[in-house]
Design a protein that fits this description.
The protein is an all-alpha fold. It has one domain. The protein is built from 2 helices and no strands.
């Protein structure tokens, strides 16, 4: 009888351990996905930074300000009209 109780207790501990390991594996997979997304964002940001750096290195500060005004702030030149799609695309 004692051996049977010990076997049941050991089985319960083993099942709990397996569930814990599976949970950690799922967490690791999720975190790896987040890391991949962050690497992608980092790569995009580096490309954008390089674009801005090249503009600054050329000492063409007016173009730099124009790009910031148009792309980041949504401004247009005095002879330009901006049309926006109401659907968001």
């Amino acid at each position: 009888m004692r051996t049977k109780i010990l076997n049941i207790a050991l089985s319960v501990v083993l099942v709990i351990g397996v569930i814990g390991v599976v949970g950690k594996v799922v967490d690791i997979i999720s975190k790896n996905s987040e890391i991949d997304d962050l690497h992608s964002q980092l790569r995009d940001q580096k490309l954008e930074n390089n674009e801005y750096s090249s503009i600054l290195e050329e000492e063409n500060i007016e173009d730099f300000y124009r790009i910031i005004a148009e792309d980041e702030l949504g401004y247009a030149g005095s002879d330009e009209i901006i049309y926006k799609d109401s659907t968001g695309y």
